[in-house]
Design brief:
Helix content is 81%, strand content 1%. It is an all-alpha fold. The chain has one domain.
């Protein structure tokens, strides 16, 4: 089962890394079609200048910037750092999707506190068989089974020790769950930072173009577009990831509280073990 889950997660990560560039390619192809249809309208005049359908002379700047509005032109025309930033954004989005699906699968009542485990422990405690209850926990590994096992392993040390063991085990299981959830928050916080870095890079390139003396309007527009696109890309990744993080975290907190209350209900009969042990010691 775990192997299948890892395979599914790897497939999601691969789809995220490959699908985003493919979507960008389709978008660019759609944008390039009108430009290709309009290309024959530009013809050379008798003097060798390129003119459009209205008879206006097309300058060198307009020729250079005519096909540079596509998304892939923005990605690959922003330099090595820009390409790295865009692939980092794609990877961050794919990682966020991976961890969201992973936590969504993990943080469910069936995973945290299986009903079969609860039934087996209730039956064993009704019979007064602590060892049977411990074996039931060992046969069905889960966060709740780990907490109950900690209680049953200290059954001879008194109820106060049992409660301390339960609290320590519950804190450990809670921390394990929250550590996996934290990765969603990391991805959601990383995306705007990558977008901001791309924005800074775009503005640097923009001012470098202005400093060249006679600015290329097409290059200047491309630099501004690069800055805005990276900001938008970071927000597109960050907003859904942050929303899902808080949603899954709240669900996890509710399930943890429910699991802790149910655990205390199951081990309340261990008080009798302590009382019986004390009575036996007094009679001796």
């Amino acid at each position: 089962m775990k192997k299948m889950q890892k395979t599914i997660m790897a497939a999601i990560l691969l789809i995220g890394l490959v699908g985003a560039p493919m979507a960008a390619t389709v978008s660019m192809a759609q944008e390039a079609a009108p430009a290709a249809q309009a290309a024959p309208a530009a013809q050379k005049s008798g003097g060798g200048d390129l003119v459009d359908a209205s008879g206006n002379v097309v300058t060198d700047t307009q020729q250079k910037s005519g096909g540079g509005g596509g998304f892939l032109d923005i990605v690959f025309g922003s330099g090595a750092l820009g390409v790295i930033l865009w692939f980092a954004l794609f990877g961050d989005g794919a990682a966020a999707l991976y961890f969201v699906v992973d936590c969504w699968v993990l943080i469910r009542p069936q995973k945290l506190m299986p009903q079969s485990l609860i039934n087996n422990v209730q039956g064993a405690m009704a019979e007064g068989d602590v060892m049977k209850a411990l074996k039931a926990c060992e046969s069905e590994p889960s966060p709740m089974a780990n907490i109950l096992a900690a209680a049953f392993q200290h059954v001879e040390e008194g109820y106060d020790i049992i409660q301390e063991a339960v609290n320590s085990a519950a804190d450990l299981e809670t921390e394990r769950i929250m550590q996996r959830l934290t990765w969603i928050s990391v991805c959601s916080n990383l995306a705007p930072s990558l977008g901001l870095l791309g924005t800074v890079q775009g503005m640097i390139m923009c001012f470098a173009t202005l400093a060249s003396g006679v600015p290329d309007i097409g290059a200047l527009a491309g630099n501004i577009s690069q800055a805005l696109w990276t900001t938008a890309g970071g927000l597109v990744v960050s907003i859904p990831a942050l929303t899902l993080f808080y949603s899954i975290r709240n669900n996890a907190n509710r399930l943890i509280l429910r699991m802790t209350a149910l655990t205390m209900e199951l081990i309340k009969d261990l008080r009798n073990v302590e009382v019986e042990g004390a009575d036996a010691a007094a009679q001796a």
